[in-house]
Amino acid sequence: MNSEKTYILAIESSCDDTAAAVLCNNVVLSNVIAAQKVHAEYGGVVPELASRAHQQNIVPVVHQAILKAGIDKRDLNAIAFTRGPGLMGSLLVGTSFAKSLALGLNIPLIEVNHMQAHILAHYIKEDGFNMPPFPFLAMTISGGHTQIVRVNSYFNMTVLGETIDDAVGEAFDKSGKILGLGYPAGPQIDKLARSGNPKAFKFTKPKVEGLNFSFSGLKTAILYFVQKETKQNPDFVSQHLNDICASIQYTIIQILIDKLKLATNETGITHVAIGGGVSANSGIRKAIKDGEQKYGWTTYIPKFEYTTDNAAMIGIAGYLKFLEGNFSNQNVMANSRLKI
To answer: How much is the pLDDT for 27?
Structure first.
């Protein structure tokens, strides 16, 4: 099925970023993202506004990706797109566009699971980045998901544990909101935490059986802590912001690492990879890397630009499906709750 050069156009529209990429085999030729600033004033993504912005952005973003790749649209061998999970309105824009373009160009259509793509981003060919061998454990951490996945092959994956309430990205954003930080708060907490003391304040880690996660209790504990301290000292947050952020981040990282340690012990698998938007967090990246010395892991951390939602990861998943001849038909529908 594979020709010498296979060109895949990939489209990602699961949340609030409109993204398009072109890959030649497993090499990224272009990776274009149009972010939506409109959501910041609302403190979170507004689905209706997101889908409208995707409609405005998708044509110029796809055009730019093809232009930057230095190819003609007639050179494309297939179009890959995010089928789910994600916001339904946003997914519909990308799905409809991909189906129409594939039909117009008379080339195959390839549906991609967004969460699988975060994991498969490790198979994009990049100098200085190794590809994990099978089987390995992947921890996917984002605004909407927190999972530990056993990866047996490209498309044979089993979720071993996941959050029973908030995702880790929500924990960062909701904590940030309590502290008066803007949206998204995760990158701000990460930045402030670098000059704070991670052990200044102690937050109780939730007790959850097995490999599942819970973050809602931590958010409540942080809220009560801030309310109590600001009652005694109205300037408490501003005076101790770096230490509070460092302590919150430290607690979240400990929760993630504890579960990952349990997963490696239970499975005997020591190849560990991370993916998803929150894996851009510098503290998490360091803690995973430190696991090599502390726990004997071999770790895989993707290139920064392939952590947050992007189309290059959709493209590599699409290319791997292309090699298998695993195509979709024109009846395929977006699925906001698509499982791995």
So the answer is: 98
